[in-house]
Amino acid sequence: AVAREDFETAAVQLGAAIELGDQAPVVSLYLAHAQMRLGRANDALVRLENVGSSLESGLSAALIRARAYRAIGRSTEAYETLRDASSRFEDSMLLVIELIVLCVERELLGESVRWIEVAASRENVEPEDALAIIELSYRNPNALEALEQLALRFRGDPDIQGHLAYGYAEAGHADLDARL
To answer: How many CB atoms lie within 10 A of CB 38?
Structure first.
């Protein structure tokens, strides 16, 4: 049911499996995912508490937990969850992008720049990651230098250069746009 994106059915079936004694952590993780997709963030957080230590350090559990915290307005806990997970999963660009999204939402401009710099320093940053980060951050006047460092990783990519140029123009930096 999860694969078909029938989250209501998935939640019922997974909940029934748990009630019948299925204690596999992945069942609780899938149930938390279904609950999030149904807008039941509090239920997802409760379910994640029951996942146990085998998945506590899991990337999926951390992402679902952080998204649940965001959904109920607990952005500090969301940030802490993502930050802690990013130290355990240093290869995950998704965690870094989620951190940038959260910082932009909370208008933590300096902190978002720090995470852009983290992204730019990672070997595994992909062009689509760079595009997402530029799109999220170009309105932050403090981020331009960090965005340039990120874009330098993809000098020949016209999409990235175009997004950066658009960002400069949108942010009122036509003089910088002309350099591209």
So the answer is: 14
Residue identified by tokens 């689509």 is: 128
Mean pLDDT of 12-35: 82
Give the contacts of 154 (CB within 8 A, at least 6 positions apart): 127, 130, 160, 161
- The Cα–Cα gap between 118 and 122 comes to 6
pTM of the model: 0.81
The token pair that represents 73 in the structure block: 């307005």
Distance in angstroms (rounded) separating the CA atoms of residues 123 and 143: 20
Q: Which of 53, 7, 51 is nearest to 33 (CA)?
A: 7
Distance in angstroms (rounded) separating the CA atoms of residues 167 and 30:
38
Instruction: Compute, in degrees rounded to 10, the torsion defined by CA atoms 170, 116, 162, 144.
Output: 50
Model confidence at 38, pLDDT cuts 50, 70, 90, reads: very high
Whole-number Å distance between alpha carbons of 62 and 82: 7
